[in-house]
Amino acid sequence: MTGRDPITAIGLMSGTSMDGIDAAVIITDGELRVDGGPALTIPYDEPFRARLRSVLGERGDVAGVEAELTDRHAVAVRRLMDMAGLAPGEVDVVGFHGHTIRHEPDRGITRQIGDGARLAAAVGVDVVDGLRYADVAAGGEGAPLAPAYHRALAGGLERPLAVLNLGGVGNVTWIGPGADDLLAFDTGPANAPLDDWCRRTIGASHDADGALAAAGRLDAERLARLVEHPYFSRRPPKSLDRDEFAAVLSTATLGLSAADGAALLAAFSVEAVAKAVGWLPSPPARWIVCGGGRRNPVLMAGLRDRLGVPVEDADALGWDGDALEAQAFGYLAVRSRLGLPISFPGTTGAPRPLTGGRLHPRRG
Predict the structure, then answer these.
(1) pLDDT tens digits for 37-65?
(2) Each residue of 103-126: pLDDT tens digit?
(3) Would 199 be classed as within a structural domain?
(4) What is the DSSP-derived secondary structure letter of residue 281?
C-alpha cells in the first residue's frame, strides 16, 4: 500500500483505428489501486474521420483538425462527467492522449495533435497531455505506454501473462513474476489495414464480426512473404507508425477479392502476434486481449490456434476491454502528476524509468 489518497481522473484515447473517442473515469493512487468507473465512446462521423486521415504524416490543415479534435474531446469529457455525476471540481486531472499523426521514434519524432490548454479551459479540469514526448526525446520509442497500467490491473493474476491490445496497431505487454518484469512492444499491424481495406472494397468502416475475412480464402504464399518483413526480426522494444506497412500491404493484396484480401490481412495480424512470442522472456500462460480486435471472431480464433494457450477477452476478467486504453491514459496522467515513471527500459527502450507529460492548469 502507498498510503496516497486516491485521485479521480478521466482518461481519453483517440486510437490509430480512428473509430472515435474513448473516455473513462478511473480512481487510482497511481500505483496498485485502480478502480474503473463509467466510460463512453463517441464515434467519429465519416467526414471528420476523412479530415483526420488527411493530416496523417503531419500534412494538410493540422491546426484546424487539432482544434476540432480538441473540441470533440471536450464534448466527450463533459458528457462523461454528466453521466458519472461528477462536477469539474470533483475530477483531479484529465489524461489527454490526443491523436497520433506521425510516429518516427528512430528520428526522434512523435506527434500527437490535441491542444491541452484549450481542453483544460473548455472542461474546467487540469489536463496532462504530451505523454510520449519526454520518452522519445530521451531516445525511447514513445510507445507503448499502457504497460504500467496493465501491470497494475494484473496484480492478482498468475504470471507470466501477456496483455494484447488489438487497436489499429497491435501491442503486447509481457508481465513476468518479478515486480519489475515488464517487456512491451508493438507486434505489428492489427485493425488498421483491415479497416482501410474494408473502406476501399466494400464501403464499410470495419469487418463486422469478421464476416468478410471468414468468407475469404487465405493465400499462404503471400502471408509467408509478409512475415519476412524486417520489422519482425528487430529486437524489442520497438514501435510502429499506423501506416508503416501500407505500401507492403498494398502490394500483397493486389488482385485479391475483397474477401480474400480481408482473410490475408486478418491472418497477418495473427501471425504478427505469433512472431512476437519469440521475443518474450518466457511463454505466457495466458493472453488477455483488449481493443476492438477482440470483437473479431476470426482474429480471436486465429490467435487461439497459433498461440496454443488460453486467449481471453479482457471483459471475461471484469476489465473493460473497450475502455482500457482510455483508463490507461487517466492512470498515466495521475502518475505524471505524482512524478512517477510512465515508461521503462523494457517497455519503450528508454535509458531509465521516465516520467512525462505536460500539465495545463484549468485556469492557465
Answers:
(1) 999 999 999 999 999 999 999 999 999 99
(2) 999 999 999 999 999 999 999 999
(3) yes
(4) S
Whether residue 43 has a cis bond before it, omega within 30° of 0 = no
Same domain, 168 and 307: yes
Best CA proximity match to 69, nearest among 103, 102, 39, 99:
99
Q: Is 12 exposed, middle or buried (0-12, 13-18, 19+ CB in 10 A)?
A: buried
In a domain, residue 272? The reply is: yes
Rounded CA separation 98/89 (Å):
23
**What is the C-alpha to C-alpha distance for residues 98 and 325, in angstroms, rounded to an integer?**
12
Please name which of 336, 82, 297, 53 lies closest in space to residue 168, comparing C-alpha atoms: 53
Q: Which domain holds residue 112?
A: 7-143+333-360
Helix (H, G, I), strand (E, B) or coil at 308: coil
Q: Which residues contact 252 (CB under 8 A, 6 or more apart)?
A: 222, 225, 226, 264, 268
How far is residue 333's CA from residue 9's CA, in Å, rounded to a whole number?
8
With a CB cutoff of 8 Å and minimum separation 6, the contacts of 346 are 180, 181, 182, 183, 184, 237
